[in-house]
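anyone seen this seq b4? input:
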Amino acid sequence: MKTKPKTRKSITKRFKITRNGIVLRRAVGQDHLLSKKSSKKKRELRKMVKLSEPEAKKIKKILGL
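predicted toks r here
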């Protein structure tokens, strides 16, 4: 009997999968050097970003979906 692969917990914490199967990630550029960024830019960075299809396919495979 083949064992089920374990889910990589670090991946589950970094990505969110919507009901329709779209993989979302956190926007980059919001950790430091925020003083030079405008309020509008910082607000936009808070939103989740959709992953490209090839990347999403890899993440889903790692998660076992």
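The chain has one domain: 9-63. The first strand starts at residue 15 and ends at 17. kinda curious what u guys think
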